[in-house]
Write a structure and sequence with these properties.
This protein has 650 residues and is an all-alpha fold. It is built from 28 helices and no strands. Helix 7 packs across helix 8, helix 7 packs parallel to helix 11 and helix 18 packs antiparallel against helix 19.
Amino acid sequence: MTTIKEKIFIGILLLLLALSPFFKGGNNDILLALLYFVGVISGAVFLNVRYLSGIKEQKENSTLYLSFFSLLIFLLSLFVLNFFSKTPYLSWVIFFEFLLYSLFALIIAFFDDLKNYLPLIFNVFFLLGLILSLYGLYVYEVANYPRVMSFFYQPNAFAGWLLFVLPLAFFLFFREREVNKILIFLLGTSLILTAFILANSRGAFLSFILPLFFLFYFLYKYKPNKKDFFRKIAALIVLTFIFVTLFVSLKEGKFSLFALRSFKKTEGMPVPSTIFLRWKFWEGAFLMAKDRPLTGYGLGSYKDAYPQYQYAPLAYTKYPHNYYIEILGETGIFGALSFYIFIFSVLLLGMFCFKKARRDKRYLPGFFLFLSLLGPMVHNGVEMDCHFRANLLYLFIFLALLWGFLRKKEKTSISHKKPFCIFEKVVKIVLIFIFLVFSFGFFLKGINFPKGEDLKKKGRQKEAISKFQTARSILPDPEIYLEEGISNFVIGNYSKAQDLAERGLSLNKIDASLYQLLGRSLLKQKEIKKAIDAFRKGVTLSPYSMDIWQDLADAYLTKGNLRKAREVLMEGVSHIDDLSINYFKGQRRGFAKQLGIKEEEFSLPVLENFSKIYEKLSEVENFLGNKTKAQEYSQKATEIIKPLGEEEKR
């Protein structure tokens, strides 16, 4: 590469490192548009067919070759399985995001002078970790929230991100010999560690045990002055303890020797153990795999498929807090097996680095890169880090840095051969076109979709529809079809709402909300039988959505079938239990307290829907002449929306 290309490449890499943790941990459509645009530049400037030759040249290092090859197999399996997906749009979006990050990884791994730039990359990463930690600690002090979460809006995901930076922070601190730099790295590492501790993620703490063991093993092994090693450990522990105590004391308003502030349980609110809930989430993924063992429901389908396996209203989740189990439910045996082989290949790379580093300290940076992967890989078994784009991107970048550190320079090149030149041009054109489409598509969505949602909330439906149409003008997102359809329904354009719901369902076949919109639109057009079928599919997919049960009952009431309506409503309320009611009441109390308002002034839709279905059941019983039952259900509806504990006082 020329000097200019080197600078461009390093600039792109550092840009990816610096930007991805921001914007809710990277979960922002504008950021994704930028990443795809960077993918366009990377594909046009850096992608070269010699990489294929370069992979072949790594056969002598079987672990490295297996890692390259297993990633390719994983991508190919996802490509094939996407044709069987129940959520085709989302599955293809996630696939191309994996493909984008794989392109970044390939380019990084085959950058010839990568080793020379590793110190710069390490220092930039350390500085970025420090900035995010300082911001997180600031928000921790000023916000009414007991845990550090920085830009991630989720403390566990932020702790998972810090698992990447901590091994490198330790490495930079313990290897330094100049006094001034030692003090700088001591201060920075202590603050990063303080943010990690105050994120209070038990899963992250457990995930850091193994990397920490290997960290101290090698740092001690290669430290010529053992006393200096222990002095640094002591200084790091003491300073971190001081910082943790200081930040907690400022937060509590009084001196505290305790590092972690435990969650205060809302009075009267039953909270199931996180272990129990996680097992139920995992069970949902296993049941998904049981029903569709070969192909799964589709990449990214868990949030729409899980509700039909949900055990109670309070146990809803978009993600099962274990990516290894989630991938099984979403992609079945074939997809999961290819993913597990890929993960196993990364572990083999770590074992290879471990053996080499024990004999030759020149391999230490490579092993520390692996340790920056090991913690997050373990943490993904108990959390949802991969659903935060920053964490997923960093997995690929750190793997690429490890690949680049270990690979041998390829001795030959096949880029000059005509067939491969043609192949290279075709690959480049296809990738650039796809990434350009996604870049503009997500840019339009990121700009227009939030504006449309805001206009929709303000009741300006026609303006909202215009924004939604612009947002989906390139990428036909089912989420946008849903919101645009609802706006059309509100202004009475029922046929258009029906059309949008059907188009959305062609891209996501298991979205209960789209079936609900379809059913409501059909009901308004007097197509009662079709509406009932749509609502039936909706409650099958999401049996704890009380508003869909009410819609189904309304369809039978339109037919004048009171007994069938009562049967439907009874089936709906059978999914409601007192434990869940009190849980959501406690949740409402907590939200109201954070906002500084009265509990009854805060609207929680799930509680309101619980109350409404009992109220509707009361009305139906009243029509049928069951006055006692009607009064009983009406009283239950009133009790549900009362503040927590008020019914006991009464």
